[in-house]
Q: What sequence folds into this?
């Protein structure tokens, strides 16, 4: 009788503990289609940085960044584009504004530098996303 009771209790509680192990501890549900546009814009901007394409990068800058940075500073950000790479992590945010943790990787000879930062993108309207904070 005790064994039968133990089996019944085990089977009754098994779905509860099994379900709790299947979920990760704080999974964000990104269902906003704008997330895709924001991630695409971040990738295009960072690719412009990687290749030193000032024109392509400037087009993706929002007004706030343009006003807060001098033209020389922005050109310097894109200058010396040799042996560069970047990594983008999963974004976080909400409708109209997303931030992505990025790692900017540069190489000078045999020395590789990794700099962790963040890029923020905002919806400028009609799914046109612009950089609101430089990495």
A:
């Amino acid at each position: 009788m005790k064994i039968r009771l133990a089996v019944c209790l085990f089977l009754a509680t098994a779905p509860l503990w099994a379900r709790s192990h299947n979920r990760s501890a704080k999974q964000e549900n990104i269902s906003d289609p704008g997330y895709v546009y924001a991630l695409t814009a971040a990738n295009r901007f960072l690719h412009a940085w990687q290749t030193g394409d000032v024109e392509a990068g400037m087009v993706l800058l929002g007004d706030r960044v343009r006003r807060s940075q001098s033209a020389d500073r922005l050109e310097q950000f894109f200058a010396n584009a040799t042996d560069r790479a970047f990594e983008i992590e999963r974004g976080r945010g909400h409708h109209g504004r997303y931030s992505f943790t990025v790692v900017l990787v540069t190489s000078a000879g045999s020395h590789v530098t990794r700099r962790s930062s963040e890029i923020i993108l905002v919806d400028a309207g009609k799914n046109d996303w612009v950089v609101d904070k430089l990495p």
